[in-house]
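Fill in residues.
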């Protein structure tokens, strides 16, 4: 009997790991492929640099707003249910993008894709943690995060080839059958359901206030230095303060503030993740524009250069995940953050004559840093909470990532707005583009150095407790 149960558990673990890894590939693949396709989208839909920034940011903002609510909903209604609905919505919205005739339509569809992404990432890590015990968890997360990096690696290569050969819409066409295959795996192989908070009430009011606060803040940030931008940021902060006060008095909050305050590992690890993603996420946006405009490379060749970073991430992540099961994950994550900072500092010096070797070496260094940071940091977070809070913790991991990504793109779009305005990118604006790019890397370097201290602060708490 026990032998049968052991086999069942092994089959379940393999199935969950396979489905989670497969889903983990989809969104990063799309993100990195779309980054590379931005010049082609700009030409086809006659979009300026700010609109192209929104093709990336609309997805990120939508995901950030819905991640925590869907993580919590998964705890209550069932994580597999929310996860599978996310895959369905992702596949449908990806198909609808094939009919894009304007930049506005594309941005709206990217918002829907972001909502679907929140359903997927708000629950996938929680499902994985539900199935794998602490001693195996870091290794499983390392494999899943490797799939994420494989998506990031394949994005520039496959995306570059598809964009050059069949146009940018073929990237989305490529993903539709992958979404269908993923659904087949979920319903055929991923048996069981996980809902440790079943019966608890869902905090609809808190979710709404949270969404409005985050939307106001992040949208305001992306349109700085305009007056409207500052007004929205202040409004977002005030609503966030109200949200924190409101959540303290709710029996089953969408975001358990007390959990973060009481759990220092969760708090510092979340902060470290937010800073890390804020410092690195717009790198692909800037490098893609730099290679295709200033270096005059086609999308395929630019993709082959940009792949160096995610390949380094993919190679290091399983090792880092396995090490985090045996060693203090804070030590590994902090060393990764330091390497990322080194890469960003040297990127501050790029100009029109910078060699491709210089860029590739720095992208590899940042990739190693990212690989060492990500799975140990996630392992520290997910291992620091009770089972009934796994959805919230998974939502926090995803939300920190998305807010970090949105902040990063917000900084990039603000710099584009400051140095280039609403002009399309052309040879006369190239000097302004390189100035915006270098300024961005200076800001990201400062952030990443601050992130080392946040990670080390968590490290002391891990060592002591």
């Amino acid at each position: 009997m026990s032998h049968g149960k052991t086999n069942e558990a092994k089959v379940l673990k393999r199935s969950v790991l396979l489905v989670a890894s497969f889903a983990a590939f989809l969104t990063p693949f799309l993100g990195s492929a779309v980054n590379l396709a931005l010049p082609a989208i700009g030409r086809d839909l006659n979009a300026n640099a700010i609109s192209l920034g929104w093709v990336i940011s609309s997805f990120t903002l939508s995901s950030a707003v819905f991640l925590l609510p869907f993580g919590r909903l998964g705890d209550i209604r069932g994580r597999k249910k929310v996860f599978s609905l996310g895959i369905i919505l992702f596949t449908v919205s990806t198909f609808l993008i094939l009919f894009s005739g304007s930049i506005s339509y594309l941005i709206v569809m990217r918002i829907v894709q972001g909502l679907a992404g929140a359903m997927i990432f708000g629950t996938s890590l929680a499902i994985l943690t539900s199935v794998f015990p602490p001693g195996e968890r870091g290794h499983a997360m390392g494999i899943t995060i490797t799939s994420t990096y494989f998506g990031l690696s394949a994005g520039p290569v496959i995306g570059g080839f598809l964009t050059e050969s069949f146009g940018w819409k073929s990237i989305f066409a490529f993903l539709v059958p992958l979404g269908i295959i993923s659904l087949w795996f979920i319903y055929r192989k991923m048996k069981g359901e996980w809902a440790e908070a079943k019966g608890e009430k869902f905090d609809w009011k808190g979710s709404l206030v949270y969404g409005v606060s985050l939307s106001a803040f992040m949208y305001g940030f992306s349109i700085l230095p305009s007056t409207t931008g500052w007004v929205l940021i202040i409004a977002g902060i005030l609503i966030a303060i109200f949200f924190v006060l409101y959540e303290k008095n709710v029996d089953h909050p969408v975001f358990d503030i007390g959990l973060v305050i009481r759990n220092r590992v969760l708090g510092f690890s979340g902060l470290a993740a937010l800073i890390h993603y804020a410092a690195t996420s717009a790198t692909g946006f800037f490098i893609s524009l730099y290679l295709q405009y200033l270096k005059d490379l086609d999308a395929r060749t630019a993709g082959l250069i940009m792949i160096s970073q995610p390949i380094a991430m993919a190679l290091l992540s399983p090792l880092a995940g396995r090490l985090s099961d045996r060693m203090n994950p804070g030590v590994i994550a902090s060393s990764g953050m330091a390497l990322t900072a080194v890469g960003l500092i040297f990127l501050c010096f790029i100009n029109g004559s910078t060699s491709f070797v210089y860029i590739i070496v720095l992208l590899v260094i940042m990739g190693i840093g990212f690989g060492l940071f990500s799975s140990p940091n996630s392992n520290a977070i997910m291992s620091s909470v009770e089972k009934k809070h796994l959805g919230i913790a998974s939502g926090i991991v995803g939300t920190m990532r998305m807010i970090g990504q949105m902040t990063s793109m917000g900084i990039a779009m603000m710099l584009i707005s400051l140095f280039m305005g609403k002009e399309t990118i052309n040879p006369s604006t190239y000097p302004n583009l390189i100035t915006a790019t270098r300024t961005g890397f200076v800001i990201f370097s400062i952030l990443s150095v601050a992130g080392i201290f946040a990670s080390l602060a968590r490290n002391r708490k891990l060592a002591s407790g």
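DSSP finds 17 helices and no strands in the chain.
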